[in-house]
Specification:
The complex is a heterodimer of chains A (341) and B (148). With 341 residues, chain A is an alpha/beta fold. Chain A has 10 helices and 15 strands. In chain A, the strands form 3 sheets. Chain A has a 7-stranded mixed sheet with strand order 1-2-10-15-14-11-12, with helices on both faces. Chain A has a 6-stranded mixed sheet with strand order 4-3-9-7-5-6, sandwiched between helices. Classes of the chains: A alpha/beta (341), B mainly alpha (148). The interface between A and B is medium-sized, with 27 and 37 residues.
């Protein structure tokens, strides 16, 4: 029998659970709205390395090793690592995996990588292919600027619709234990492109993908937005969040106060980030700190995490293509049903 | 509704929701910072003429440009120029300070990829189009000048 609902949703019958998590962010994120929730805030975003790329990799490695200690397990018990980032050829993840010595899958889902890695990890644990898996991702402002935009010291003005790439990493360890937050189901997104080609307005480009995945999730599971205490998108930003709510309402789903966006919430108004945060690390760092800690306290019971990713490169944009996007949804619940033994 | 129509409608809707740059504050910032930079240039020129009375005005202007380029490159190196640029926009880009910054900032950014393929190769990624346009334009103007 297939463990699926509808066209796009996977159901995890053996309830893989979150056994450990860790988040590490840069100084600017530390001064933002979630500073006190992150496990570690760096004083210098170069993190003692010679380049920002090396710093990004070191931060990701730190997040993975500390999440493993948080789960109180041995590194050898981690049967697979699922990680990805924004750098070309996902170097940050692969270089972190090189020194960890754990079986590794490199993923690319742009900013949707946190959800993508959680889905892949949950499948492995649920199917009995792994005792524990590590699902990690992150991004670094300075390395992303260098790859996608302009040199850091160039004196340009950012357009008011732009977002700020988050320097932050997050890692979740999933395992087959009996208590804690469980991954109940997940909806795999399709690549959606509604013709937005402005790379300074990624939120608007990713909204149709988020809407598509949310719609599929609600159709497949029969749930409604009100069944969740929190519906959290990854990095749509202020403008993107407004557009998403409009699109969902247009499609007949009214989402109320239980909706939030990590990008919109990450920074405070004095930090000049315009539409808020973006990048893999945006959703990853908030999910692995604030969201899990509130779930563990019992303040949130059902959370739907929808990470969205813009799947373009500088080459595709310069050649005049619009921005294809993807969104994956992961449904977490506290307690949940008993495991099938 | 077909796909094209949907995309057009969505893009029009996004456009209507997009935050716009406020023109008047931006113009004011650019005006006073750009004006100040020009005044500093004039001041350096006048100082040159005052200290070296036999210097020609043309030569004094050249020294003023060189001084502005060095000041802008120095401010780029210590990480201040990008903040001034974010505030003033065209006010710092249009004078020669913007040109200096556009060469110094990629040089700083790519020096980690090595001297030849990093610093030297990437130095002109932003200023390059300006130089190409300038050279092509001067050739065209030269040809026109030749035949008139």
């Amino acid at each position: 029998m297939l463990n699926r609902l509808g066209n796009q949703t996977l159901v995890f019958k053996n309830k893989p659970r979150v056994v450990g998590s860790y988040s590490v962010v840069g100084p600017k994120e530390g001064k933002g709205n979630f500073g006190k929730f992150f496990h570690k805030v760096l004083e210098d975003d170069l993190f003692g390395e010679k380049s920002y790329e090396a710093a990004e990799s070191k931060m990701l490695k730190l997040a993975i090793t500390e999440a493993i200690s948080d789960a109180r397990i041995n590194k050898d018990e981690v049967d697979a690592l699922f990680a990805g980032d924004l750098m070309n050829q996902i170097i940050s993840s692969s270089f972190a995996a090189k020194t960890l010595g754990v079986p590794y899958f490199g993923l690319f889902g742009a900013c949707s990588t946190m959800a993508e890695s959680l889905i892949m990890g949950a499948c492995h644990v649920d199917g009995g292919f792994a005792r524990y898996v590590a699902c990690a991702t992150g991004s670094h402002f300075s390395s992303a600027e260098k790859q996608f935009r302009y040199p850091l010291e160039l004196g340009t003005q950012r357009p008011p619709s732009s977002q700020w790439t988050v320097t932050g990493m997050g890692c979740t360890i999933l395992g087959n234990t009996n208590t804690g937050i469980c991954v109940e189901s997940a909806t795999i997104g399709k690549v959606v492109d509604w013709g937005v080609s402005d790379v300074n307005n990624m939120g608007a480009a990713m909204c149709p993908a988020a809407t598509d995945t949310l719609k599929a999730h609600f159709y497949d599971t029969g749930k409604t937005p009100d069944d969740y205490d929190l519906i959290l998108t990854g990095d749509l930003g202020k403008l993107g969040s407004e557009i998403l709510l409009d699109l969902m309402e247009y499609n007949g789903f009214k989402i109320g106060n239980n909706y939030s966006d990590c990008g919109q919430m990450m920074y405070n108004n004095t930090q000049k980030t315009f539409m808020g945060g973006s990048g893999c690390g945006c959703g990853a760092s908030i999910l692995n700190s604030y969201v899990y800690s509130r779930m563990r306290k019992g303040e949130l019971k059902n959370v739907l995490f929808v990470a969205t990713g813009a799947l373009m490169s500088t080459t595709s944009s310069q050649q005049g293509n619009s921005i294809p996007s993807i969104a994956h949804a992961v449904s977490f619940s506290l307690g949940g049903k008993e495991r099938n033994v | 509704m077909n796909e094209n129509e949907r995309n057009l409608r969505y893009n029009a809707y996004v456009e209507s929701k997009m935050p716009k740059t406020k023109p008047w504050p931006s113009l004011f910032h650019a005006f006073w910072v750009g004006g100040l930079i020009c005044c500093v240039g004039e001041l350096i020129k006048d100082l040159c003429l005052y200290i070296f009375p036999y210097m020609s005005t043309q030569e004094a202007s050249n020294w003023a440009l060189i001084a502005l380029i060095i000041i802008a490159a120095f401010l780029t190196a210590i990480g201040i120029f990008d903040r001034i640029g974010a505030y003033a926009g065209a006010g710092t880009i249009v004078p020669i300070t913007g040109f200096s910054n556009s060469i110094a900032s990629p040089a700083l950014e790519f020096k980690r990829e090595g001297l030849v393929f990093g610093l030297m190769a990437k130095m002109f990624i932003i200023a390059g189009p300006v130089i190409v346009t300038g050279v092509v334009a001067s050739v065209i103007v030269g040809l026109v000048y030749l035949f008139i």
